[in-house]
User: What shape does this take?
Amino acid sequence: MDQRPNTKAIRIQTPRSPQMEHSTPLFLTSSFCFENAEDMRAAFAEESDDNIYTRFSNPNVQEFIDKICALEGAEDGFATASGMSAVFGCFMTFLNSGDHLLSCSSVFGSTHTIITKYLYRWDIEYSYADIHRPETWEALIRPNTRMIYIETPTNPGLDIVDLEWLGKIAKKHNVILLVDNCFATPVLQRPIDFGADLVLHSATKWLDGQGRVLGGVVVGKKELIRELYLFCRNTGPSISPFNAWVLSKSLETLDVRMQRHCDNAEKLVAALEGNPKINWIRYPFHPTHPKYEVAKKQMTRGGGLITFDLKGGLESGRKFLDALQMLSLTSNLGDSRSIASHPASTTHSKLSKEEQEAVSITPGLIRISVGLEQVEDIIADILQALEKS
Ligand SMILES: Cc1ncc(COP(=O)(O)O)c(C=O)c1O
Assistant: This one.
């Protein structure tokens, strides 16, 4: 009987040991043994699937990968030590000297740093596609463009890229489409269904969901994952089996957690509507979102992140953070605990005004990662902090 993805995220399991454990045990081992020279030869010759060394593969890691493949509808995958090693591993595997990368202008800060400050070392060119003007994107594709890289929804602007439209463009130009699906998770959005070749995650965020471990994962077409595997097997960004074990357990509750994050986010948006301290609220499933129709087409729900713009700008943003009594001030998201951040005074403070605008950051922008607490408590804390901001 073929199971549905959310059931597979619970039921996929490393084959039981003779102990007949119910929950997968931890395989904290750097390497694996062989009965004889022939078995060892066959493993190295890739004639068998036997594990050799945890930098290459490990049962806990494989279980985590198999679950993400089931959730994303992917053929194969590779798990990495962090979201950034997934991003960097993909760039280094698929981009050769002389190639061109087309990335959406609005990407996570460290991804932006790799693109703008490191790729030139390997003679890899890049262009940024204006997130606000998708009609200009196709003309930026060059004969040497090898990859299109996007986030949707973006961090922190919550901009949305039309995956179906971009999937067709990537196919037409024979370019790899790589989507960072960190903000939506496969519960809310499956980019492969719309034509993406590869999907990556910072598993550190919603996939873990409790702010415990770093992790990353890339899934997609088998032949591309094979290239990624060979690169990573030799260069070493592999995830630790402990982190993979934690993440695999987390996936058993991903669907219920994401539904509750969305419930809470929707209620928070409703409670903030019309608040005199706020210019606007942004949430992918709110009718005022500029890409509301696109979000509705490609996401099942709006996700756990909302942003709003404080009328008082930069100073109000700082006051708002200081006035919060329960929400955490921490540089993470996708946690059971609600988190507030003010990009203009922290993560994005070094960007010029124009650069901030290009990635939809205003001086008064507040990003809330809506947690799993009783929503009344989340709302009460935010409303009282708004009064003081
Ligand atoms: C959209 C996005 N991609 C990638 C990353 C990097 O992930 P990690 O911190 O696990 O390296 C982050 C981290 O915040 C992120 O928000």
Observations:
- Residues 82-84, 108, 151, 155, 180, 182, 202, 204, 214, 216 surround pyridoxal-5'-phosphate (CB under 6 Å).
- The CA atoms of residues 254 and 275 lie 32 Å apart.
- The chain has two domains: 5-251, 255-388.
